[in-house]
Design goal:
elongated, alpha+beta, 2 domains, 9 strands, Immunoglobulin-like, 208 residues, single chain
Length: 208
């Protein structure tokens, strides 16, 4: 058996060195992949919408039902509006569905709506009004000026606590001031109808 030459031994020695380097490199890569870690989190994040709701104490009946009017007659009716909302909002009132008469009676029924406390539907005995400078205007004017939420009047800001209440007193009168007797007589047999609406919308600028 012939022994390997010195040259062969040297080649064998050199061939081992790259393998050793590669193994060492692998050990270094594995070592650098290890590290200390830690995390923290805020769990259970969620968003849900609020509710807006309004009710009144009219028990489903009309606020005003007046028949056999005569010139100069007047009357009043109170209504308590309750917010069932759990978010802040603004309540406004307006006129809808005015059904005018051929004689123009809507120009001569003057309505003044006040806000305040106390009283109840059909009973304004304990009503205490909030001071304001508004005067009553004809139903025809209200229907033209306050006809939706954007143009509604008598604003009431709610805080978002269910059960908040506001009492409204509506005072009306059949005003024939400035009319001739012939014009007054022409109003006989006239009738009109209208819806009084209270609407709430939630606050448009909520905080996070």
């Amino acid at each position: 058996m012939k022994l390997p030459s010195a040259r062969v031994h040297r080649l064998a020695a050199f061939s081992v060195t790259p393998v050793a380097v590669l193994l060492a490199g692998g050990l270094v890569w594995q070592s650098s992949n290890a590290a200390f870690t830690a995390t923290t989190r805020a769990s259970g994040n969620a968003w849900s919408t609020g509710n807006v709701a309004l009710s009144d104490d009219d028990l489903g009946t009309a606020g005003f039902t007046v028949e056999n009017l005569v010139p100069g007659q007047t009357g009043e009716r109170c209504m308590v509006v309750t917010s069932g909302s759990n978010v802040p909002g603004e309540v406004r009132s307006y006129i809808r569905n005015l059904s005018p008469s051929a004689q123009g009676l809507e120009h001569h029924i003057i309505l003044d709506v006040e806000q305040g406390t106390g009283g109840s539907f059909n009973d304004c005995t304990s009503f205490v009004p909030t001071p304001d400078s508004q005067n009553g205007v004809p139903l025809s004017t209200l229907a033209a000026v306050n006809h939706d939420y954007a143009t509604g009047g008598s604003p009431w800001m709610t805080t978002g606590t269910p059960g908040e209440r506001m009492t409204y007193r509506g005072t009306w009168r059949f005003d024939t001031t400035g009319l001739t007797q012939q014009q007054i007589d022409a109003l006989q047999g006239a009738s009109i109808s209208v819806d009084l609406v209270w609407e709430i919308q939630s606050d448009e600028t909520p905080t996070a």
